[in-house]
Amino acid sequence: MKNVFTQKLIKWHENQNKRIMPWKGEKDAYRIWISEIILQQTRVEQGLSYYENFIQSFPTLGSLALAEDEMVFKLWEGLGYYSRCRNLIHSARHIHYNLGGKFPEKYDDLLQLKGIGPYTAAAISSFAYGLPHAVVDGNVFRVLSRVRGDFTAIDTTLGKQHYNEIAHCALDRRNTGEYNQAIMDFGATVCKPMLPLCTVCILNNDCKAFAEGWVNQLPVKEKRIIRKNRYLDYFVFTSGKTVLVKNREHKDIWQNLNEFYLYETEKESAWNAQTIQRFLQEQLGVEVYTVKKISDSYAQQLTHQNIKGRFIVIDLKTVPKSLTHFKSMAVESFAMLAFPKFINMFLDDYPLFGAEKDLDLL
DNA sequence: AAACCGGGGCT
DNA sequence: AGCCCAGGTTT
C-alpha cells in the first residue's frame, strides 16, 4: 500500500482532473518526445499549437529525420530556446540512421540523446513504456516542497538530488505514467506558483506548508537572475527584391536563426544620415546606396538580457566584398526563414516585400 | 557550480 | 518589475 499522498493524487487524477491535452495517454514515444521537448520551460498553452503543427508536418520520426533544417526551425520560430530544435533534429537523425529508427526505451539510453535530460528521460520511459522513473519538473519541486514544508533549495545540485529521491519514493510503481501525469497536472492547476487553491486542495490536511502558513515561501530558490543590456542595430540591405540574410552560427542567443547585418554596440547608437554614411563607407566600403528607413527603437526582454536596437533599411546598387558571406534571399524564399522575435517585430511593422499585399488591396 | 539559452503570461 | 513555465547543455 502506497502512502496517502500518492493515493490521493491518483484519485484526484481519476476523478477531478479535467486537464485535456493531445499527448495525454499517447503511447507513441516519438510523439511523447516531441511534446516533452516543446514543453521544456514552456507553458502548455504556449506549446499546444506548436505541437499540433509539428505532428502534422512530421508525423513520424523518419519524416523529421529527413526534413531540411530550415523547415524545422521555421516550425519552431517564436517558441524560444532554439537549441531544443537543434537537438531535436540531431537526435531524430541519430535514431533514424544509427539506431535503425527504433526509439530507445531504457532511461539510461534515452539520457544519451541530445536534448534529453533526467526529466524528459523519466517522462518518455514512464509514459511510453511504464518504466518506474519519477518525473521531477517545476510542478513536482513545488508540490513536494510545500507538502513536506521543505525549505531545501530546488536549484542546487544537492537540492535536485534530494527531491529526486523523494519523488522516486512517492512514485506509484504499478502506475508510473498516470502518477507522473497526476502530480504535474496537480501542480499546474491546484498547487500553482502564485495563487494556489489551498482551500479546495485535497491535500490541505496533509500539507505542512499549509498548516504552517509557508505556502507562499515555497519552493526556495537560491539563485536570482541578472539581466545585461545589449544594443543590436540591424542593417537591412536590400537590392531590388532581394535581402541580405545570414545564419547566426556562433554560440549566442538565437543560434541557427537568421538575421541581417548586425552592428552591436555598448551603448545605444544615434543614427543619422551622416553616421550612416561614415559607417557604410569606412566599415563596409559602400559608396552608392539609398536609406529607405530608420526604424523606431525596438526592445525585447529575454530571461538574461535586455535587447534594444533599430533597423536601418539600405538599398544597394551592388553588394560589396565585405558582405559576400551573406545570402541574397529573394522575395519568395524569404518567408521560409526563421527569425528571432526581435526581428519579426520589425518585419511585422515594415514588410520589406509588402508591395504585393498593397496591390491586393487596390 | 555557475552561466547560458526565449518568449509569454500572471501578479 | 519580478517570477515562473512538463529543462538541458556548456564552461
Can you characterise this structure?
This protein is of the alpha+beta class and 362 residues long. 44% of the residues lie in helices and 14% in strands. The protein is elongated. The N and C termini lie far apart (73 Å). The C terminus is likely disordered. The structure holds a DNA duplex (11 and 11 nucleotides).
Task: Based on the model shown, name its key terms.
about 350 residues; alpha+beta; Endonuclease III, domain 1; Nucleoside Triphosphate Pyrophosphohydrolase; 2 domains; 9-stranded mixed sheet; 16 helices; 9 strands; elongated; DNA-binding
Short description:
The protein has 362 residues and is an alpha+beta fold. It is built from 16 helices and nine strands.
Taken from the alpha-carbon principal axes, the silhouette is elongated
Query: Are there runs of 5+ residues with pLDDT below 50, and where?
Result: 355-362
Instruction: Report the end-to-end length measured between terminal Cα atoms.
Output: 73 Å
Strand content: 5-15%
Whole-number count of domains: 2
**How are helices and strands ordered from N to C?**
HHHHHHHHHHHHEEEEHEEEEEHHH
